[in-house]
Amino acid sequence: MPLQNYQYDTIMREYSRRQAQSRYDLEQRRTAAYKAIPRLQEIDREVASLSASKARALLGGGDEGLDDLKDAIASLSAERTELLAAGGYPADHLEPHYVCPLCQDTGYINSRKCTCFKRAEIELLYAQSNLKEIIEKENFDHFSFDCYSDTIKNDATGLSARETALRAYHTARSFVREFDSRFRNLFIYGNTGVGKTFLSHCIARELLKSAHCVLYFSAFDLFDMLAQSAFSKKAESTDNENFIFDCDLLIIDDLGTELTNSFVSSQLFLCINERIMRRKSTIISTNMKLEDFSDTYSERTFSRIASNYQMVKLIGKDIRIEKIFLGGK
């Protein structure tokens, strides 16, 4: 998803802060270490001088004496390591300590966004969409089977609403547990208010906690964004699609509530198919009955879902309405 300028600037300010903090911490460590072991400062000065000499020699096109310079620098570095160890310091005590060693807190590796930048984008988008607040309430710790009836039965399986919810709960747990080792997609369906979105939020929270990139969209917002991308000539439109196709987990909530047309149908197939090809997991939740799905979208879309998604059904009364009658409990 392309960031607005202010969003990008927000992330880059954090990287600037990290770099400044890293420099400050390094200077504090150096000052204390030099005071405790004066020879360390002498070594660093000698290494800097020899390194400058080496650079001048290379720029001059000659390599005479380079081996001696390398040996001298290596000898000083070894002495430095020994002095640090003797003083009870780790070997990297006088080196910068980065939050992300991969990009050294710049956000980029060879002009490409680092994985930490990608996580920062997701976290910023979640924070600004208020979903983080939602998943602090809607998560596995707060999942209650008391909301599901023992008397309402699923005619196809013979299981009660509570037993069906228990099965869905364990499916969601295993989905999270095996996320990095097993490619899976979930299609969660059932009547309004039976806990489909709640279950998706449970999964999202667990994967976000383990630093996975998770994107959540209502079906309306997703197709609105894809429409903007499809009819825009801006370069960020491609970035927009790639972000949707490449995130670790994409959650499409309330499929079927959007205004369905040929464009939406084709974009849904594209999204589903592309993520299957890239082996990127997707969760779809919908109130639609399976028998109505093909008519609303297409046979080929339903075929891709049926052959690549695990079907998870929830049944029961509308939990939200039940809670209203119970005074919000």
Compact summary:
By secondary structure, the protein is of the alpha/beta class. The protein has 13 helices and seven strands.
Overall description:
The longest helix has 32 residues. With 329 residues, the chain is an alpha/beta fold. The protein has a 5-stranded parallel beta sheet, sandwiched between helices. The chain has a two-stranded antiparallel ribbon with strand order 1-2. It is 58% helix and 9% strand. β1 and β2 form a beta hairpin.
Short key terms for the protein model shown above:
329 residues, alpha/beta, elongated, 13 helices, 5-stranded parallel beta sheet, two-stranded antiparallel ribbon
Radius of gyration: 28 Å
| Count of helical stretches | 13
Task: Sum up the overall morphology in one term.
Answer: elongated
How far apart lie the N and C ends? Answer: 37 Å
- In total, how many beta strands? 7
Largest sheet, in brief, is: 5 strands, parallel
Provide the spatial order of strands within the biggest beta sheet: 4-5-6-3-7
Low-confidence segments, given as residue ranges, are none
> Averaged pLDDT, please?
87
Residues in helix, %: 55-70%
Content of β-strand = 5-15%
Structure classification: alpha/beta
Order of helices and strands: HHHEEHHHEHEHHEHEHHEH
